[in-house]
Amino acid sequence: MNTASPISPLRRQDIVEYEPLLKSSFKELLSFSSYSLMFPAVSPEELEPDAEHPYGRAVLEDDRLQLPLIRGDRLLAIFEARGVDAAKTAQALPYLPVMASLCLEQIGLRKLAITDPLTSLANRHCLHGALMREISGILGSIMPGPEAVADDSLQGHSACFGLIMIDLDRFRQVNESYGHLFGDRILNLAAEVLRDACPKQALVCRLDGDSFGVLWPQASRSKLRDLASNLGIEMSKVTARFAPLREDVSVSASIGFVNYPQDLQGAQFQKAPAEQAWLVLEKAEKALNTAKACGRGQVYSFNQILAQGGVVLEVMPMNRLIINLGRSVDAHEGQRFLVWSRKFNGRETIVGASGDVVFGHYPPMYKAEVSLVEVQDEMAIAEILVQNDPDWVVEKGDKLTLLDEHSGLMEQREAQPGARSPQKDLLTGLYPYRDFLQTWQTARSQSKTFSVLLMRLESPHSERTPMDQMKEEQFFQALTNRAETLFGPSALGGRYSMNCVVYHVPDMEPSECARAVRELFEDDRFAGLDKSVGIAGYPFLDFTRSDILDNARKAMDHAALLQDEKIACFDSISLNISADRLFAQGEVYDAIAEYKKALTADEGNLLARNSLGVCYARLNKYNSARAIFQDLAASHPDQIMPLYNFGCACLKDGDPEAARQAFEQVLAVKPDHIYALIRLGLMAEEEGDFERAWALYEQVGAAPAGDGQTPASSLAHRYLARLAFRRDDRDTARELLHQAITSNPQDAHSFHLLAKIYLERGDDPEIAESLARQSVHLKPDAPAFWEVLISALEQQGKAEEAGQTKIRAAAQTG
After folding, report:
1. 263 near 283, Cβ under 8 Å?
2. DSSP letter at 40?
3. Most exposed residue of 140, 154, 420, 572, measured as fewest CB within 10 angstroms of its CB?
4. pTM of the prediction?
5. Nearest-CA neighbor of 539 among 510, 574, 577?
6. Whole-number pLDDT of residue 318
7. So what's the pLDDT on residue 552?
8. Rounded-to-integer distance, Cα 310 and Cα 405, Å
9. CB atoms inside a 10 Å sphere around CB 604
10. Tell me: the pLDDT tens digits for 241-283?
11. What pLDDT was estimated at residue 453?
12. CA distances from 39 to 76, 368, 789 (A)
């Protein structure tokens, strides 16, 4: 029976990819205790209906059933079920091939649902699902804390991923000039280029029209940039001959990319994985649109948009600008930028009067420094803080470069001769931000102790009505009227942004400021407004006077995460939150410095101390990490994770006995702690105690997955499969390896062992080659992985490719 559809062809690789669906489909038809897949090399002639070849029909021997999976005239695989009921299966034997065809049809329909019919790439729906799975796996470990794991080698997920979005330049002109059929041909060529140029474990998708996406697990920012640049080069080589005009048509591509979790921040991590997946797609699209706006064939990352992609859209009166950066690119009030002109920044060719040509470049010259005062979804309003030359005015089209929080020129700049004096806003009685900074510079130097307070109204800009804006202005006006009573006559107030005010309060502690703010909020006029307040004081640790405004910003971020009263004084927790953000962005050294400050402020901060140990472990400083975890385990015996982390640090530091004792203590408190079970199982394997290791791994499979741990069954498959291979139980190993790869597509060792088993059994070497390629891409420094790939190529008669692979292997493994 041939139920194949021309729009849903199946390959042998699809059987591996959709194995869970195949297993569940057969479970509805048959009762079996275990199963495995085989991929014998069989020619179509051996599958003629009258042939007696065993692979042409279902075969039952005792309690073992071999069922061929045939699609059209091609044998895709053999499904071997063990532990079947011989009597019942014998009765159903004539119907099993039809049932197998229906199971394959179900796989074909599933593939069709997630595949683009033109290019056979995955579609947008498939990409969104893959993004959600990656995000769900990462979320439990990107933020340090009391449950953070010092050793992430047991995790069943990647620590990060990258998403690249590609759009063909001027593709509409191709369709209009040469027709849509020729355009489809170009799209297919582009899809083939992407398949060949992307890593094997990357998911390549067609999103819509002439847009493509590439999801690459475990991709750092530098690796993703290299791949994006390479894809741009490869896509420029896409060329097709338009026969009627004998014309070669080429295309180029604009490319944008985003990294997770590095390009997300703050409250964005609190969204559900499905929402975060859409957010990642939006960020990648923003980067792509920025690349397209810069010209053909450009490559842009999301983090470049804020740093380098700003443009002045309009110049308004009263030193205000409209710029193209909004919340969609993570801009926020208070950020500062340098404004510069394209004309006088960069290389230039100057032609003299006599025709002489001079090549050179201008030194960087900046017109002004600006600060964002109101940030909307797609744009922002900026205020000019400093203008370098009054005669060189800011113009529409000028570019923006993001300044470091501590690199602003405004605060270090002395008042220019003839400059106007700071003036307050007539309605609210507050200084504009630039005037506040100028006045604050003097005020803070005259105060031995002071606090800085930031108060922000959290109304979403997209939902603000004129009535909301009027209420906000009334709030700020009422606040100004009561400021002298609340904070004293020397308080200095300014407009930090349109929805945020800043106050310098001399001779008042942050806790006193907080009490004054609570008193203010008891006024009925302030009810119904969503407010966040951050307060920081001087002196505090080794922070300078100019640092206190930045500390107040961090305290306001801390306040925004609180559930009820959103008032936070800058403290150890604020520093911890700031350090967590740095850790999530991959800035481990900066995170360490911030965690140390948090501990200086509060030695009892368990989150900061455990996170500091995690950072040291990630940097392979196991002795330092070990000391931290040992102290934590002694002082907090009720906390399991520091004890487990201590065991990991001991193991990495060359002290297996101390590690064993730590893991056993963890199990004494929590018998189903899957990571401790695995660690003890691995140690038993190294000692040759396979029975104990097997028992421990089975306990992992039976353990419930909780507290953000990786699903226990997927981890158990991985380690049971490897152990079965070491015990020479190839059938069991093959079955478990398929399940391990399905649950963790980044498991290089499982790909390697499965490829090795298929070669040993004499199965189709093409499948072994595909699996071996996955393993060497995930772990290119393992010589044994390359050996299996070379063997698979040689068995297929690909001698030249095998020779080239040997050269690559030597270069990769040294």
Report:
1. yes
2. B
3. 420
4. 0.71
5. 510
6. 83
7. 94
8. 17
9. 10
10. 888 888 888 899 999 999 988 888 767 777 888 899 999 999 9
11. 94
12. 7, 68, 17
Residue with the two structure tokens 């407004």: 529
CA angle 109, 112, 117 (to 5 degrees): 150
Residues whose CB is less than 8 angstroms from the CB of residue 660 and which lie 6 or more positions away in sequence, other chains included: 647, 680, 683
Q: What pLDDT is recorded for position 150?
A: 61
Radius of gyration in angstroms for the set of CA atoms belonging to the chain, rounded to a whole number: 32
What is d(CA 229, CA 223) in angstroms, rounded to the nearest whole number? 10
Q: What is the DSSP string of 218-276?
A: T--HHHHHHHHHHHHHHHTT-EEEEGGGTEEEE--EEEEEEEETTT--GGGGGS-HHHH
How far is it, in rounded angstroms, from Cα 26 to Cα 79?
Answer: 9
CA distance from start to end of the chain: 53
Q: Which residue has the tokens 């995460």?
A: 561
298: which 2 tokens?
A: 């450009």
List CB contacts of 114: < 8 A, sequence separation 6 or more: 122, 123, 125, 126, 129
Q: Using the structure block, give the residue that is written with the tokens 């620590």.
A: 159
Residue 567 has what pLDDT?
93
Amino acid at 245: L
**Which portions of the chain are predicted below pLDDT 70?**
1-8, 42-56, 140-159, 266, 345-364, 404-420, 425-428, 459-471, 525-528, 705-712, 714, 742-745, 814
Q: Do β-strands 320-323 and 380-387 pair in parallel, antiparallel, or remain unpaired? A: antiparallel
Distant-in-sequence, close-in-space partners of 296: CB < 8 Å, separation ≥ 6 = 169, 170, 252, 254
- At residue 6, the pLDDT reads 44
Q: Report the C-alpha gap between 551 and 536 in whole angstroms.
A: 6
